Prior knowledge:
Layout: E1 3-6, H1 8-23, H2 29-41, E2 51-52, E3 58-62, E4 69-76, E5 81-89
Parallel strand pairs: 1-5
Antiparallel strand pairs: 2-3, 3-4, 4-5
Amino acid sequence: xxxxxxxxxxxxxxxxxxxxxxxxxxxxxxxxxxxxxxxxxxxxxxxxxxxxxxxxxxxxxxxxxxxxxxxxxxxxxxxxxxxxxxxxxxxxxxxxxx
Length: 98
């Protein structure tokens, strides 16, 4: 089972997301962040679930609309580690508004 590691920048992304949710008075922002973490934990059993993107990276789409986020990650099979590189809202990551 792959180990999941967050890049320092991904930790900063969580801080930024949480600050944004607090600033906009979203109901229960910590639950929203927990939803993102729960989705990322799926990579521990299914590291190739995200869609392939450039440079051997993958994008895990989490939720949709105002609850939509994207985790950019790289799975290194040789060491069986998932490196989560960034977490962004889908709108921030360039996804079109429905």
